[in-house]
């Protein structure tokens, strides 16, 4: 077979294609495919003869205790990591430019260093003086972090190999270049190769390596998704512009629960932890108003209450608007279809706007009932009781399915002053005094009981 001279690679997800296309079939991104020299395999690199050496194999039994995890003391970060940093692990921290990744990781580096870990921070984006100035501004000038500004992978690896730190932070992976690869920094092949080298270094030397990756909008720079499969833990730093809240969310974690979140607030003095996110997300709630429903959710191991807000308006468009922020829009379409088909409540000719207050993203199917309640409350122009939370999954038949951890959700709601809950009939709840619980088997009876329709 003739060897391809070039490959077409998607900069968003790293998939390779035989020819250029405007849209990547693998991840659906537009304008992300670029032509690149393939990572290949020069002549003679194939497996023509078996000249490798045998890999030493061993059993599963071990006497060694697992190495202790390093705690930063930033509780929100330690929890998202699954209970501290695992030595020798590779962590990717992705996020939009300007969201606060460098700030978070500089604070993390200082926290690890202050708790006795050897921490090295390599900046490929800013000069040492700039990082130092930021550290001063954050009040971290005295933390024993060792700082370097470099983009050449070979020099970085040499430094790390000599220093053998406990934690190495590389900001960012898109600025690094390896002299082994003939491609510009930030290209898929450079990002992949440099990340691979650093992950290998982490495993071999027991240094925890944290890689920063910018989420890119235009196609010329490879995004963090390209290295997701190589690392142990993938964290994304999210937030809405205009909100000071930032959420660090675990998307994948070999050493802890995925979907765990840490909540931070961006202040003039850096990121500060938010210990009680429910109170924060509900803080802007005023008088009970139509279109608002409080969802008792679970993020990772922690219950979090959020407010789902809906607005319904007559539409002048042939296909009415469905604007959804912070929720899965496919899920919302399904709920609208179920309301129409099973409960005979049409939304045709109406614009629908849905939003989660505070810039939070909710991915749980358990939010279905709260979404439906917000939609109905907006449509009927009738407010839900102010002391009421909801959760439950809606199936296509219109039945309400129970969801996990009902008691944790209810306890959190109770703690925040809610005294009523609407949930699926089959939910098992024991021992919650003082909470009025309304159960509904399906969406139709929920609509009948709550809105008297
Ligand atoms: P930064 O950490 O540089 O973002 P990233 O590394 O993800 O690109 O954060 C930049 C933003 O954070 C910038 O808009 C200013 C803001 N910021 C604060 O509000 N307070 C602070 O103390 C710091 C250091 C930054
Ligand atoms: Mg940065």
Automatic annotation (TrEMBL):
BP GO annotations: recombinational repair
Keyword Protein transport recorded: no
InterPro entries in the record: AAA+_ATPase, DNA_repair_RadA, P-loop_NTPase, RecA_ATP-bd, Ribosomal_Su5_D2-typ_SF, Ribsml_uS5_D2-typ_fold_subgr, Rubredoxin_2
GO molecular function: ATP binding; ATP-dependent DNA damage sensor activity; damaged DNA binding; hydrolase activity; zinc ion binding
Keyword field: ATP-binding, DNA damage, DNA repair, DNA-binding, Hydrolase, Metal-binding, Nucleotide-binding, Stress response, Zinc, Zinc-finger
Motif (RadA KNRFG motif): 252-256
Annotated spans, Lon-protease-like: 351-453
Residue numbers binding ATP: 95-102
Top-level lineage group: Bacteria
Residue ranges annotated for the RecA family profile domain, each copy included: 66-215
CDD domains: RadA_SMS_N (cd01121)
NCBIfam families: sms
Notes concerning its domains: The middle region has homology to RecA with ATPase motifs including the RadA KNRFG motif, while the C-terminus is homologous to Lon protease.
Protein name: DNA repair protein RadA
Species lineage: Bacteria, Pseudomonadati, Pseudomonadota, Alphaproteobacteria, Rhodobacterales
Gene for this chain: radA
């Amino acid at each position: 077979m003739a060897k391809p001279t070039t490959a077409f690679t998607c900069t968003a997800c790293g998939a390779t294609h035989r020819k250029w296309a405007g849209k990547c079939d693998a991840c659906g991104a537009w304008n992300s495919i670029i032509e690149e020299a393939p990572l290949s395999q020069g002549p003679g690199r194939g497996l023509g003869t078996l000249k490798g050496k045998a890999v030493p194999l061993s059993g599963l039994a071990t006497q060694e205790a697992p190495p202790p995890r390093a705690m930063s003391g930033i509780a929100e970060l330690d929890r998202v990591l699954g209970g501290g940093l695992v030595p020798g692990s590779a962590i990717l921290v992705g996020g939009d430019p300007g969201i606060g990744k460098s700030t978070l990781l500089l604070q993390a580096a200082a926290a690890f260093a202050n708790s006795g870990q050897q921490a090295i921070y390599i900046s490929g984006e800013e000069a040492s003086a700039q990082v130092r100035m930021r550290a001063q501004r954050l009040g971290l000038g005295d933390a024993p972090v060792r700082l370097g500004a470099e983009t050449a992978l070979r020099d970085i690896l040499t430094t790390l190999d000599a220093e053998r730190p406990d934690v190495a932070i590389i900001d960012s992976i898109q600025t690094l270049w390896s002299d082994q690869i003939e491609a510009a920094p930030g290209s898929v092949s450079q990002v992949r190769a440099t990340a691979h080298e650093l992950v290998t270094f982490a495993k071999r030397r027991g240094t925890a390596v944290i890689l920063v990756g910018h989420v890119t909008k235009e196609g010329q720079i490879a995004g963090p998704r390209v290295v997701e499969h190589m690392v142990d833990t993938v964290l994304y730093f999210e937030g809405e512009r205009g909100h000071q809240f930032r959420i660090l969310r675990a998307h994948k974690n070999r050493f802890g629960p995925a979907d765990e979140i840490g909540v931070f607030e961006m202040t003039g003095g850096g990121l500060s932890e938010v210990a009680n996110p429910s109170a924060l997300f509900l803080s802007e709630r005023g008088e009970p108003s139509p279109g608002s429903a409080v969802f008792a959710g679970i993020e990772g191991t922690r219950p979090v209450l959020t407010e789902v807000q809906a607005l319904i308006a007559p539409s002048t468009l042939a296909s009415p608007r469905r604007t959804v922020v912070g929720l899965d829009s496919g899920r919302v379409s399904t709920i609208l279809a179920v309301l129409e088909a099973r409960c005979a409540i049409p939304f045709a000719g109406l614009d629908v706007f849905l939003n989660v207050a505070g810039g939070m993203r909710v991915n749980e199917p358990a939010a279905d009932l709260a979404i439906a309640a917000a939609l109905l409350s907006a449509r009927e122009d009738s407010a839900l009781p102010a002391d009421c939370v909801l959760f439950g999954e809606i199936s296509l038949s219109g039945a309400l399915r129970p969801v996990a951890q009902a008691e944790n959700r209810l306890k959190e709601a109770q703690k925040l002053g809610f005294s009523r809950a609407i949930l699926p009939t089959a939910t098992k709840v024991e021992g919650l005094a003082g909470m009025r619980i309304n159960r509904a088997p399906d969406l139709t009876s929920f609509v009948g009981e709550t809105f008297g329709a």
